Amino acid sequence: MTITDVDGLLPDPRDLLAGTDWASLEHACGAAAGTPALLAGLLADDVGTQARALRHLNDPVHHQNTIYSATVPAAVYVAKILSDPRTDTIVADRGGRALPLRAALLDWVTSVATEVDSQAEARMGLCLEEHLESVQVRALRPGLFQAVSAFLHASDLAVQEAAVAAAVPLLDAPELVGQRALLTPMVRDVLASSDHRSYRFIAGRGLKSWGKRRVRCLTGKTRTCGRAAAAANRLFDLDFHGEEGDHLFPADVMP
């Protein structure tokens, strides 16, 4: 299955697991033949199995934030299962923080997307266009953003913050630059005021790269309520999605 040749539509997750030659792909420990069975565990009924699958995503599929050939179809699979209700379960992320599996998966998307943005390229002093796997992930960004954007107004604050954080590096894609102005208020109101330092860092990094004024980060009792921020930014939801809950791309950002 050619991951990047899907006319902007990500394949069905079951078809992806069955139709990908995982044995020909690699992660940090070598051939990824066992990866599809572990990825399927993300939707298992047992939380322990889900946690084990999440650990496999973080290491070896994305070991030390590296993009491997197996990382590419894994990113597609993660994006496609985000809306599955079985990702509502509570797991521990790689830092030991308890949060919804959906939020942990969004954090994983954030890490993958960050490793292929222009700032990563400058930081590493490399031309990522010469790295096949990075090129493939970059081609996926519009589809990944479509999946992530469905949770920008999630009722669960942990999921909402994770979604906004994932959107920031994805908007490095040339096809999505026009969405930055619409997302900026959410980055300021939801992410920059998060209680989690990593999210505040992503907010500052994103606003700076977009040429936007950074805001003073508020935390604890003084932080902006995520729910109030979501209501205040309903304009973004309507402008980007059309009717509320309709998570489709507008014509000008289709890949």
Describe this structure in words.
This protein has 255 residues and is mainly alpha-helical. It is 52% helix and 4% strand. The strands form 2 sheets. A two-stranded antiparallel sheet has the order 1-2. A two-stranded antiparallel ribbon has the order 3-4. A hairpin with a 5-residue loop joins β3 and β4 (98-100). The two termini are 19 Å apart. Residues 1-8 and 218-255 have low confidence and may be disordered.
Q: Number of helical runs?
A: 12
Q: Strand order, main sheet: write it out.
A: 1-2
Overall geometry:
globular
Radius of gyration using CA atoms only: 17 Å
Helix/strand-derived category reads mainly alpha
Strands, total number: 4
Largest sheet: 2 strands, antiparallel
Strand fraction equals: under 5%
Regions with little confidence, pLDDT below 50 for 5+ residues: 1-8, 218-255
Spell out the helices and strands N to C: HEEHHHEEHHHHHHHH
Q: What is the residue-mean pLDDT, rounded to a whole number?
A: 83
Helix fraction bin: 40-55%
Terminal CA distance reads 19 Å
Using brief descriptors, characterize the structure shown:
single chain; 255 residues; mainly alpha; two-stranded antiparallel ribbon; 12 helices; globular
Please give a quick description of this structure.
Helix content is 52%, strand content 4%. With 255 residues, it is mainly alpha-helical.
